[in-house]
Design brief:
Layout: H1 5-33, H2 45-74, H3 87-98, H4 106-120, H5 138-155
Helix pairs in contact: 1-2, 2-3, 2-4, 2-5, 4-5
Length: 171
């Protein structure tokens, strides 16, 4: 990737912080979701939903950042001019790098993750309905966001500790 050194440093720093947050949320969400029948919950239920929502927002940020960096590099830009990269541009680059033939279903998982993130986006608050908190369920929100992150990490497996919670396959 031919990204300006200062831009690469910021991206790396941001991704590290986001990934730590995703790691923590995964460590809490999965055991809560898969506790034994009649088992004691790990989390107060609204916290569980908020962690799933925050996981999706963090996953979106990782996905967008990596996709934008890939687009910049693929198109001869180093990012130092602050050029914006549209969603369609970074999504195409993300697919090309991390799931070029679509065998892992990255694009579908990214689409579902974006849908969750967009439910929270406040730029058109008067034009959208109330948030349906069922949209932040484990199946509807966590599973696709986790799948997208795991698909990306598959390509960078050498850089991910074997003990990472982000390797856990949600059911």
């Amino acid at each position: 990737m031919d990204i300006d050194a200062a831009v690469r440093h910021r991206l790396t720093s941001n991704l590290k912080h986001l990934m730590v947050g995703l790691e923590l949320k995964t460590a809490l969400v999965i055991p809560h979701r898969f506790r034994p029948p009649n088992g004691r919950p790990m989390l107060f239920e609204p916290y569980y939903q908020n962690l799933i929502q925050e996981f999706c927002v963090g996953a979106f940020s990782v996905i967008e950042g990596l996709g934008a960096a890939q687009w910049l590099s693929q198109n001869g830009h180093d990012g130092s001019d602050g050029r914006g990269v549209s969603r369609n541009q970074w999504r195409a680059s993300l697919r090309a790098v991390y799931d070029d033939v679509g065998e892992h279903g990255l694009d579908e998982s990214v689409e579902r993750t974006l849908s969750v993130r967009d439910k929270l986006h406040q730029d058109q608050i008067g034009a959208r309905a109330n948030i349906d908190w069922h949209a932040f369920s484990y199946e509807a929100a966590f599973v696709p966001a986790s799948h997208a992150i795991r698909t990306i990490l598959r390509r960078e497996a050498h850089a991910v500790p074997a003990t990472s919670n982000l390797h856990v396959e949600p059911q």
